[in-house]
């Protein structure tokens, strides 16, 4: 019997047979006779295909249930809310040239996000809201002095910042060269920051406020609630949010008054916005915050 098998892919097995086959009873060629093994094969193949279809249906059902569950969990995330009252302050991280100026050393990484979020204008709105509603404003800056470049080990972005001289100040007691440097404030913010009502804390050194006196300054002024904004969203701003929450502050974040690095395969802004939603009590847009204060003022 001239029967041949041909594998065409990982799922199908095709059987090549002659158009006619000798009948086992008469020995003559019979155009209607199909060998038994062929019929068995066809039956097996049919069962195999049915099994594939059933498994695919089960997989699709499982995926559907999974997606519905995830969507439901997201929809069911509680929203604690955030009431702005007399114990509330605005905290802004790193409103400095190296992040926010097109000439800054980090602009190539964060510039896209800054422009997409309208961050520069939204941060200015934060300063204006502080003045209009008499909400105290605290600035947590990022500076590196000469002795900071003597560190024996660094994380990835610490090393990058040191390599590109980001936020460099030279001697901490000498302001020579500070004006207009990458560590200086973005010029449009200076008229707000230089006023007596704004507190500039000591510099944080890596990302979070653990290494400066922000929490102390807030507590000393009776602040229990923080509206957080600034740069960089997934690093310093997010780290400040986490540390403030750990220290017992109630924190809201203004998501579009931040911006983060966008690099090939890495979207810092997306990561930051996810964590703001999961950790803070409330995520405002700048417009939402403006409307909230306009409608309800300070409680």
From TrEMBL:
InterPro entries cross-referenced by the UniProt entry: Isochorismatase-like_dom, Isochorismatase-like_hydrls, Isochorismatase-like_sf
A GO term for molecular function: hydrolase activity
Presence of keyword Cytoplasm: no
Keywords: Hydrolase
Domain Isochorismatase-like: 88-262
Name used for this protein in its record: Isochorismatase-like domain-containing protein
Organism this protein belongs to: Flagellimonas marinaquae
